[in-house]
Amino acid sequence: MSDIHGPRALRLLAARDAAKIADAAWYADDSAQGDAADSTTGRASLAADAEVDVALAALIASDEERDWCCGDDYGSWTERGGSVDSVLGALEAAHDSEWDDDARQRTRVTWYRIRCELTGEEGRCMVTADPPEPKCARGHEHDWQEPYSVLGGLKENPGVWSSGAGISSRSVCACCGAYRVFDSGAQDPGTGCCYTSTTYEDADDESIAWVATCAAEAAAAEAS
Question: 73 vs 45, 100, 166, 217, 223, CA distance in Å?
Answer without folding.
Answer: 40, 23, 28, 53, 61
